[in-house]
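Incident log, support desk, overnight shift.

02:14 A customer reports that sequence design results differ from what the structure should imply. Their input is reproduced verbatim below. On-call engineer (initials T.W.) acknowledged and began investigating.
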């Protein structure tokens, strides 16, 4: 095996602020710098990952596993924050650094990579022995989304700067697109990159073969059942302690009220308004923040995975899980726990099956026919697409199909058992992550309640016959249905929604007497904020659920207005600037969100608030095309250009990123270009300047 590693102060990142070092303990942060002794003598790669919601972290671990399996080399996976960046020039020649970086905001690094990027970008960067990285060899993988203008900006900037500093890249910069398939982009990039890495470092394939990341021990005796995790995410949750809630310790918030926002019986979709009671929890929020909702998996998928792995009878068995290589793989959830809790709360078994997971399970097929089928599917991208992805099949379903089993829930007990070691399941299935919702209330109006506006996702896959149900939005919809004791008829748009276990770990998510459920949540801060001055015009564009944060913005201004009037009298708002909301939905009588509230807000704001509405399937342009928010914006172009260019208006766009947000930006660029007497490029430059000055902000998703 090639030489040893000698890194001091290696760097890495991760939203969870956990470190993958020796001596790692779940939930604890180890802050000492890394030294040679800690690393041992067999680590040849250092991976630094910048992740906000865990995808970059997951892919960093995947690269690490693969390098270890193929070449028998040690890989140290590290969080990019906190560490001593200036020692990067000490990485020996027979080591390489692998950077796995996601991009956020508008081309910004993830929270935990901000300091790292600032350090690297500074013109007077100083490492321990100078200002160059001539000895450093590195590999770069970026995670982004093409619907964002600044696609994979972080890894691009890192790579450019590394080159300037004299570091030598191995392979191409990998760029994964979350809008298409991170998985496929990663698979297309990694083989050639790993080969070039091996060539560069003189590594030989076949050194180790298949390796385990974890040991699993089924516990026959449980010394303290109160310490077993049944779906809780943090030690404090075991005792039901309230307080200190964040991304590691969500708050099980009582659902204060919840109702349907679309017109029932008319709309072909459902949209849930939900208010969470956060009084006494210590949770606070600001307008523009996001609420993270921690979903659970549907019972049918939980049972399917248990059945396929032959664990139906052992669902309540308590297991203890230890990492065999904490520098590389951490146990992705708290333990000891049960098989049932792992599939219900901790692993993402409801996502579409991934080709990589299928490849990892080929060796454990129950018979030769299943093995051959699975191998083909995992190797042939087109076959996988047409037979699996285009049907929206999930992992458990694929394993059943490949073994020739029925997918009907009632046939689960007779399904073929796959002898997959449980440690491989943990290694190959992503952990379940929270979903984010733009908060739709203002803390000035509802300090103790956080509102969200969630459209319920249900779609037909290109080739499937059955609907696919989005995980978290249908979980929220089920909470609403159960809490309000609603019945669902055959014609109801919710008919067929999967069944979720809503009572939570130890039944703590249901207050039987009050008939009230709890949902685990935490608040994520955002930079999507109103200007402080009420004299600056505000232009908000939010069709569909994109209106959510603007309800919060308008409520915020209403609360300020009411106070101002109380203090200054009836004329208090006379020098306030216009607040304009461009909203779009399909039809007034179908999906107009919060229709009755806007008039009330306008009155309280002395009609400084203007609502412009496009009804895309009811009111059309003269040429017969759909009239969208950007058509209204174009109609108002003279006024908008004046507000943006002369009155320094702040512009906000929220909602669907790929079509709507891009079309709206395109329209704004046209308007501003013309107003400035130039062309489209002039408008684009103006938009860029507005973004740089935080006068144009986007909160979009795909
Ligand atoms: C910052 C931010 C703010 C957000 N705010 C809101 C909000 O205010 N309101 C709101 O309703 N949502 C909002 N979302 C979206 C929300 O986070 C979830 O993504 C959404 O509710 C779907 O989650 P789910 O768990 O139900 O679906 P999942 O189970 O996560 O399924 C979603 C996945 O299904 C696939 N998919 C979706 N539609 C199709 C289709 N037609 N064909 C094929 N595949 C498809 C895609 O791969 C998609 O990623 C926001 C997202 C972000 C990032
Ligand atoms: N992450 C997720 O999975 C997630 C979560 C929420 C929403 N979404 C997706 O995001 C999209 C928006 O969802 P939504 O429910 O909030 O909104 P929506 O109800 O689908 O759309 C709101 C309005 O925007 C219009 N619209 C469509 N394309 C547009 C464009 N290019 N420019 C301007 N307006 C446009 C729609 O018109 P028409 O429909 O008549 O064309 C409709 O009038 C949907 O595709 C939805 O599936 C995804
Ligand atoms: C709010 C938000 C903003 C984003 N901004 C960008 C962006 O500006 N450029 C980009 O390429 N990707 C952007 N993305 C996509 C993420 O980089 C991508 O989803 C990535 O897989 C996230 O990795 P993580 O889970 O490790 O944080 C954004 C995603 C979200 C949710």
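02:41 Re-run completed on a clean worker. Output:
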């Amino acid at each position: 095996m090639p030489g040893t590693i000698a890194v001091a102060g290696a760097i890495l990142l991760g939203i969870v602020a956990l470190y993958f070092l020796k001596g790692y303990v779940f939930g604890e942060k180890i802050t000492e710098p890394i030294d040679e002794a800690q690393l041992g003598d067999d680590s040849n790669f250092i991976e630094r990952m910048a992740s906000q919601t865990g995808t970059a972290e997951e892919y960093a671990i995947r690269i690490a596993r693969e390098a270890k399996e193929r070449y028998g080399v040690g890989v140290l996976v590290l969080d990019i924050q906190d560490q001593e960046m200036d020692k990067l020039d000490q990485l020996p020649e027979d080591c390489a650094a692998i950077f796995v970086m996601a991009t956020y905001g508008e081309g910004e690094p993830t929270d935990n990579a901000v300091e790292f990027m600032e350090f690297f970008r500074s013109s007077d960067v100083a490492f321990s022995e100078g200002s160059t990285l001539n000895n450093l060899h590195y590999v770069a993988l970026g995670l982004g989304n093409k619907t964002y203008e600044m696609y994979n900006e972080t890894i691009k900037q890192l790579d450019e700067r590394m080159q300037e500093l004299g570091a030598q890249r191995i392979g191409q910069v990998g760029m994964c697109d979350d809008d298409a398939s991170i998985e496929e982009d990663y698979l297309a990039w990694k083989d050639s990159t790993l080969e070039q890495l091996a060539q560069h470092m003189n590594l030989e394939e076949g050194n180790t073969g298949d390796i385990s990341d974890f040991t699993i021990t089924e516990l026959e005796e449980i010394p303290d059942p109160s310490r077993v995790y049944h779906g809780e995410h943090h030690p404090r949750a075991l005792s039901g302690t309230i307080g200190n809630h964040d991304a590691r310790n969500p708050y099980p918030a009582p659902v204060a009220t919840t109702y349907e926002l679309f017109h029932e019986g008319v709309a072909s979709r459902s949209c849930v308004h939900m208010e969470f009671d956060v009084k006494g929890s210590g949770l606070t929020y600001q307008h523009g923040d996001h609420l993270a909702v921690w979903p659970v998996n549907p019972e049918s998928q939980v049972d399917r995975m248990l059945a396929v792995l032959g664990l139906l009878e052992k669902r309540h068995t308590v297991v203890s899980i230890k990492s065999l290589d904490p520098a590389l793989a951490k146990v992705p959830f708290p333990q000891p726990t049960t098989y049932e809790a792992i599939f219900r709360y901790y692993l993402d078994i409801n996502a579409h099956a991934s080709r990589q997971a299928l490849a990892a399970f080929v060796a454990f097929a129950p018979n030769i026919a299943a093995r051959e089928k699975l191998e083909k599917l995992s190797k042939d991208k087109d076959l996988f697409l047409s037979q699996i992805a285009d049907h929206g099949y999930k992992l458990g379903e694929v394993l059943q199909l490949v073994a020739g089993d029925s997918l009907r829930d009632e046939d689960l007990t007779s399904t073929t058992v796959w002898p997959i070691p449980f440690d491989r399941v943990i290694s190959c299935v992503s952990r379940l992550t929270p979903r984010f919702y733009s908060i739709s209330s203002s803390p000035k109006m509802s300090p103790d309640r956080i509102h969200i506006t969630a459209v319920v996702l249900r779609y037909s896959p290109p080739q499937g016959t059955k609907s696919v149900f989005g995980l978290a939005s249908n979980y929220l919809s089920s909470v609403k249905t159960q809490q309000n004791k609603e019945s669902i008829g055959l014609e109801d748009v919710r008919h067929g929604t999967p069944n979720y276990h809503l009572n939570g770990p130890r039944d703590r998510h249901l207050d039987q007497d009050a008939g009230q459920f709890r949902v685990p949540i935490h608040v994520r801060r955002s930079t999507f904020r109103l200007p402080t001055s009420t004299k600056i015009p505000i232009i908000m564009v939010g069709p569909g659920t994109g209106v959510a944060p603007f309800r919060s913005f308008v409520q915020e201004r209403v609360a300020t207005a009411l106070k101002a009037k109380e203090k200054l009298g009836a004329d208090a708002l006379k020098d306030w600037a216009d607040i304009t909301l461009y909203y779009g939905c399909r039809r007034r009588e179908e999906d107009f969100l919060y229709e009755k509230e806007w008039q009330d807000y306008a009155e309280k704001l002395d009609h400084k608030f203007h609502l412009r509405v496009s009804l895309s399937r009811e009111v059309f342009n003269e040429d017969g095309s759909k009239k969208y928010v950007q058509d209204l914006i174009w109609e108002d172009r003279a006024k908008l250009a004046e507000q943006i260019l002369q009155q320094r208006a702040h512009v906000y766009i929220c909602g669907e990123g790929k079509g709507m947000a891009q079309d709206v930006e395109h329209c704004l660029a046209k308007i501003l270009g013309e107003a400035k007497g130039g062309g489209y490029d002039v408008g684009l430059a103006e938009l860029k300047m507005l973004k740089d000055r935080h006068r144009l902000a986007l909160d979009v998703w795909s």
